[in-house]
Amino acid sequence: MQKVYASMEKIKACYVLTKTYDDVEFAEMMVMDACFILGFILQVFVSFVESNLEDVFYLGDIVVDLVLLENQIPFFFLAKIFKCTIAELDLGMSLVTFMSPVLLMLDLFDSDAVLGITESISVNDIHHILSLLHECYKPKKDVINSEESLSTRRHSAVDLDKAGVSFKPNRSQIWVLGMEMEFPCFLLSWCKCTLRMPILKVHDSTELILRNLIAYELESRQTRKYITSYTFVMDMLVNTQDDVAKLVDYKVLVNIMGSNEEAANMINNICKHVTIVDSFYTQQWKTLDKYSNNYWPKHIAWMRRTYFSSPWNIIALVVGSILFALTMAQTIFTVKGGNK
Is 163 helix (H, G, I), strand (E, B) or coil? Predict the structure, then answer.
């Protein structure tokens, strides 16, 4: 309790209190909340260490509550309680490292970078658990282009695929949310363009986690809008269930929901009533827009789908071309022979 009394004013400053609490009541509430959260995280930690998949699955339904914006408590206070309780077990780790299993369960992207990022996070930089999760999606260094307004021109995944754009997973160790454009040759109009993007895991808790991360970004003026920017791009890529199916085929989206239609509706609804922000992906989108509007990529992609989509189509094209050539040759020789 002394930990609370010593930081009472600092803790209260983190909240917009709609009810008046006396110091004793407030201190008891904070200690109980902190102890419950740490006890729950300890359960998750032990389940991971013991590889108890049944417990991990069960706890996964509850762990999402840790990132609800209304459930947050100051991280510095959580660290103080951790230091005088669980840290006494001599685990030899910081609170951030102790929470790694929780972060893995909350992580929406199939990336190993999250574990590496937690090692470099300082407790002093974290406001609360939701803030800690958000830190995992920041780039390790300043590799992002300046933020600009994203074009309102929508290019769905299906439309881009028809224009000759393919998608591949991007497992960047620098930025989990990074997207990169790739061209196999310098003739952009003739080469098949590839957009490398993070692998998004879509499940029943995805919308809740994304919404709380977006709410945190919009609420905090000092926080850059990484997640909001990413979700706007996904909203542009996904219009229908066909777009979800296309991204699943390219292995840049893992759909654990009931259907592709549910996943599409979820992605489309996340950005509703959210103010459009400047995007970190403007340059990539400009490149996609320019590429997909060129004449040759569309028609080359159409030829690939029509004539080179399977071995049988290729064989039919070759045989047809040979027959056409033989017919033309026969016609030419017949005409020449007749003239003699």
Answer: coil
d(CA 253, CA 110): 9
Mean pLDDT of 247-251: 95
**In whole angstroms, what is the distance from residue 274 CA to residue 271 CA?**
5
Return the axis-axis angle of helices 53-63 and 23-49, rounded to nearest 10°.
150
CA distances to 46, 149, 217 from 214, rounded to whole Å, are: 30, 18, 5
* Under 8 Å between Cβ of 116 and 175: no
Asked if 89 and 234 touch (Cβ cutoff 8 Å), the reply is no
Q: How many CB atoms are located within 10 Å of the residue 265 CB? A: 17
Q: Tens of pLDDT along 174-205?
A: 889 999 988 766 545 556 789 999 999 999 99
Q: Please give the Cα distance from 52 to 81 (Å, whole number).
A: 27
What is the chain's Cα-based Rg?
27
Going by pLDDT thresholds of 50, 70 and 90, the confidence category of residue 11 is confident
Q: What is the pLDDT of residue 299?
A: 47
> How far from chain centre, in Å, is Cα 242?
19
Given a contact cutoff of 8 angstroms between Cβ atoms, the answer to whether 82 and 95 are in contact is yes
Q: What is the pTM of this model?
A: 0.82
Are 193 and 288 a contacting pair, CB within 8 Å?
Answer: yes
HSE-up of 265 (CA within 13 Å, CB side)?
7
Nearest residue to 224 (alpha-carbon basis) of 144, 118, 115, 104: 144
The answer, yes or no, to whether residue 102 has pLDDT greater than 90, is yes
Identify the residue with better confidence: 6 or 30.
30
Alpha-carbon distance of 52 to 224, in angstroms, equals 37
Q: What are phi and psi of 219, to 5 degrees?
A: -80, -30
Residue 261, Cα to own-chain centre: how many angstroms?
19
**pLDDT for residue 116:** 67
**Stretch 297-316: mean pLDDT, rounded?**
57
The DSSP letter of residue 202 is E
CA distance 133 to 234: 20
232 within 8 A of 276, measured Cβ to Cβ: yes
